[in-house]
Amino acid sequence: MKIMVIDTALGACAAGVFEGEDGAALRPLGLRVDVMTKGHQERLGGLARDAAAEAGGYDGVDRIGVTVGPGSFTGLRVGLAFALGLGAALDRPVVGISTVDALAASVPDSDAGLVAAVIDARRGQVYARLFRDGVALGEAEALPLETARDRILAASGATTPVLVGSGALVLAEAFVELAQARLHPLPAPAPEALAALTMAADPASAPPQPMYLRAPDATPPSRLPGQPRQPTA
Q1: DSSP 8-state class, residue 58
Q2: Contact of 100 with 58, CB cutoff 8 Å
Q3: Residues with Cβ within 8 Å of residue 163, at least 6 apart in sequence
């Protein structure tokens, strides 16, 4: 199977084409990654074009995988719109991949055990999901830092937890109890992990829909364009 992956949900803009079979190592045919927190919309088209060209074009792509969050509200929608448009043009299925699942899958096998995929959500929170030996222990949630710490410590017991994602350093620097955790402060999931999850996904149960764990920070305008300001009392 030949698949393409798109990721703009976190701190990178990535597009890659991989080939292989489910359960086996996938071979990268073309890959482009730029570490960035803004400007995904301007870069994604070029990166996807170059990755596809290196892989011999879009012909033969059987499936497209795209990160659906949690992550940047604007970034993940850029990737979703691009992936859905490409899927429609190629008449190929598009599957949605959770960023926390992909971060956990990015951890080397040598660090198997209790893995906390944590994304810095600002405002004293992280988006988090815990895994033990690759199996999720619950759903992804937006958690206060203290709650995330307590859950990680309770789940890890006497073992040393693994923290992966942009929230890894946030938690390790905030709490002495996590200072000795094994850290993988990745800005975004590894494209190889995204490819493996895309290959294994069931299109019927992995829709390409945004995963929001809290309301957006933006607020609607208090007046329409051109409308005069209301006098203050």
Answers
A1: S
A2: no
A3: 116, 118, 152, 171, 172, 178, 181, 182, 183, 184, 185
pLDDT of residue 113: 87
Cβ neighbors of 84 (< 8 A, separation 6 or more) are: 66, 94, 208
Is residue 129 within 8 A of residue 163, CB to CB? The reply is no
pTM to 2 decimal places: 0.90
Q: Output the CA torsion sign for 60, 100, 164, 75.
A: positive
Half-sphere exposure of 2 (CA within 13 A, CB side): 13
* pLDDT higher than 60, residue 233: no
- Provide mean pLDDT across the span 144-169: 96
Q: What is the pLDDT of residue 232?
A: 55
Place of tokens 């208090």: 222
The greatest distance separating any two alpha carbons of the chain, rounded to the nearest whole angstrom, comes to 68
